[in-house]
Amino acid sequence: QVQLVESGGGMVQAGGSLRLSCAASGGTLSSYRLGWFRQAPGKEREFVATVSRSGANTDYADSVKGRFTISRDDAKKTVYLQMNSLKPDDTAVYYCAAYKLPVPGQNIRSSSSYDYWGQGTHVTVSA
Questions:
Q1: In this structure, what are the phi and psi dihedrals at residue 32, rounded to the nearest 5 degrees?
Q2: Which residue from 2, 16, 21, 113 has the fewest beta carbons nearer than 10 Å?
Q3: What is the structure's pLDDT at 104?
Q4: pLDDT in tens, 14-72
Q5: What residues does 71 pair with on adjacent strands?
Q6: What does the pLDDT read at residue 83?
Q7: Cα–Cα distance measured from residue 27 to residue 33, given in angstroms and rounded to the nearest whole number
Q8: Does the pLDDT at position 101 exceed 90?
Q9: DSSP secondary structure letter of residue 29
Q10: What is the largest CA-CA distance in the chain?
């Protein structure tokens, strides 16, 4: 089991930057694949980014590729999402998530693959 708590959300102007953090407790973080998802008003929850257990492999949604960076620091029990060149369309509640078991054929971009979720943090990007 692992508990996840996001922080770092807020309001920023278009073109600005924010760094989200997700602090974990109750487990060995290196045992988990980690991801970020977001849900904008009137839209379904969507995949943003994910990082492998080793930190060597990352994957991003096309809408954020080149602007966002996911990273992990298992010694600090924290996963980060660095967001640059923010756009109004990035406005959403952002959630971090994790799952432990490496299942062959697992869809690492699907919210249904993740077992543990944080409470979410709001990001608002003004035009």
A1: -120, 135
A2: 16
A3: 87
A4: 999 999 999 999 988 999 999 999 999 999 999 999 999 999 999 999 999 999 999 99
A5: 80
A6: 98
A7: 13
A8: no
A9: G
A10: 43
Phi/psi at 101 (5° precision): -80, 125
Q: What average pLDDT does the segment 117-126 reach?
A: 98
Burial state string for 117-126 with b = 16 or more CB within 10 A and e = fewer than 16 = bbebbebebe
Residue with tokens 């849900």: 39
DSSP string, 49-74: EEE-TTS--EEE-TTTTTTEEEEEET
The residue assigned the tokens 């997700």 is 22
Cα separation, 27 vs 63, in Å, equals: 32
C-alpha dihedral sign at 16, 59, 61, 100 = negative
